[in-house]
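User: I'm writing a short report section on ligand binding and want a predicted complex to refer to. Could you take this sequence and S-adenosylmethionine and write out the structure as tokens? A short remark afterwards would be nice.
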Amino acid sequence: MGTKTLNMGNIVAESDATALDLLLEKVYRSGGYDFRGYKRGTVTRRLERRLHATRAKTYLDYMRILDTYPEEYEKLADDLTIKVSGFFRSPYTFLQVSRLVLPELVSYKKNRRQQELRFWSTACARGEEPYSIAMLLDDFLEHRLKDFNISIDATDISRHALHEAQTGRYSPKEIGGLSPAILESYFIRQGEGYVVNSNLRQMVNFSYFDLVSTEPPPFLNLDCIFCCNILIYLQKQLQEKVLDMLYDSLATPGYLVLGEVETPTDNLRGRLECLDAKAKIYTKNDKTV
Ligand SMILES: C[S@@+](CC[C@H](N)C(=O)[O-])C[C@H]1O[C@@H](n2cnc3c(N)ncnc32)[C@H](O)[C@@H]1O
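Assistant: Sure. The structure tokens for the complex follow:
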């Protein structure tokens, strides 16, 4: 009896897994969103919400709903992506970037009379991370931004989040942790909330890019890449693939910032020099290439 029940359980679990594979394949082929290599636990938990919202009882039911209401693809993608973020979300990471990365990078550029400083925030959500990078740079350069030609590219797969990031509008709760001095320097009060000022906004370019796509990297020769709180949602093999692509996008010297939450892959450990094991800050330099 016990064995039979167990076997039954396995069969159900197996067919569920197959249905999930079919569903994710469909979402990729017809909806253009590739969640096939995301960790299954998060995907199934988040999918439950869409099944519940559309009253679908099974994954197969839900596939029929996708056929009838193609706008459901976008809603699904929105539910499958976790967009929690914050300004200077990991204060330790930003502190270490200003201590370990910026002095080395800026003096390297000055010594060679190079003015370009190129950053990429690879999963920027609603813009808190790239705007934090812009504030960090302005503070580090003591407001002499004009000495450099700075660009911060910020990408994400959530078009909704990108649109909101572009408007640069935040509620008092969202900017809650920022000091009055930062608010005064970089934000303008607007109604109940705050909006980032034009200086900051000019430094950041938002665009769509899917990190797990097979497209070639959109930017090359970058001085510093932030890839924080996104790899944790991907299976190991896909993490390696994304990190390979980011490695190719970096200049030499170049810096990769993964933040406190991510775990570096073995592949990465062998190719980059670690500057801070807690904030997961790495450098690609002459010794590592
Ligand atoms: C938890 S937020 C992290 C935001 C920010 N990097 C931070 O550390 O606060 C994860 C972001 O990754 C985005 N994302 C998920 N899959 C992605 C992909 N394949 N390519 C680009 N962005 C992705 C989500 O839309 C979401 O905005």
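A remark for your report: The first strand starts at residue 116 and ends at 121. The radius of gyration is 21 Å.
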